[in-house]
Amino acid sequence: MPEHTAASRLRLSGLCFLLQILNILLFAVFVRYSPEGSPGPCPPQLNCSRRNQDSGFQQPRFQDVHVQVLLSFGLLVAFLSRYGAGSAAISILITAFAIQWAVFIQGMFYFFLNGKIYVGAQSMVSADFCTAAVLISIGAVLGRVSPVQMLLLALLEVTLCTLNEYILLSLMGVRDSGRSLTVHTFGAYFGLMVSRVLYQPHKDKRKREEQRDKGHQTDVFAVVGTIYLWIFWPSFTSTTTVHHNAENWAVLNTYFSLAASTMSTFILSPLLYEETTPRMVQIQDATLAGMAMMGMAGEMLVTPFGALIAGFLVGLISPLGFRFFTPVLHSRLKIQDTCGVHNTHGLPGILGALLGTLLTLLATADTYGYRLELVFPLVAQGSRTVTDQALMQLGALPLTLLLATLGGGLTGAVLKIKVLRCSPDAQNKENAVFREVPEEGSDPSANGKEELGISTLV
Amino acid sequence: MPEHTAASRLRLSGLCFLLQILNILLFAVFVRYSPEGSPGPCPPQLNCSRRNQDSGFQQPRFQDVHVQVLLSFGLLVAFLSRYGAGSAAISILITAFAIQWAVFIQGMFYFFLNGKIYVGAQSMVSADFCTAAVLISIGAVLGRVSPVQMLLLALLEVTLCTLNEYILLSLMGVRDSGRSLTVHTFGAYFGLMVSRVLYQPHKDKRKREEQRDKGHQTDVFAVVGTIYLWIFWPSFTSTTTVHHNAENWAVLNTYFSLAASTMSTFILSPLLYEETTPRMVQIQDATLAGMAMMGMAGEMLVTPFGALIAGFLVGLISPLGFRFFTPVLHSRLKIQDTCGVHNTHGLPGILGALLGTLLTLLATADTYGYRLELVFPLVAQGSRTVTDQALMQLGALPLTLLLATLGGGLTGAVLKIKVLRCSPDAQNKENAVFREVPEEGSDPSANGKEELGISTLV
Amino acid sequence: MPEHTAASRLRLSGLCFLLQILNILLFAVFVRYSPEGSPGPCPPQLNCSRRNQDSGFQQPRFQDVHVQVLLSFGLLVAFLSRYGAGSAAISILITAFAIQWAVFIQGMFYFFLNGKIYVGAQSMVSADFCTAAVLISIGAVLGRVSPVQMLLLALLEVTLCTLNEYILLSLMGVRDSGRSLTVHTFGAYFGLMVSRVLYQPHKDKRKREEQRDKGHQTDVFAVVGTIYLWIFWPSFTSTTTVHHNAENWAVLNTYFSLAASTMSTFILSPLLYEETTPRMVQIQDATLAGMAMMGMAGEMLVTPFGALIAGFLVGLISPLGFRFFTPVLHSRLKIQDTCGVHNTHGLPGILGALLGTLLTLLATADTYGYRLELVFPLVAQGSRTVTDQALMQLGALPLTLLLATLGGGLTGAVLKIKVLRCSPDAQNKENAVFREVPEEGSDPSANGKEELGISTLV
Question: Which domain holds residue A247?
Answer without folding.
Answer: 2-32+60-436
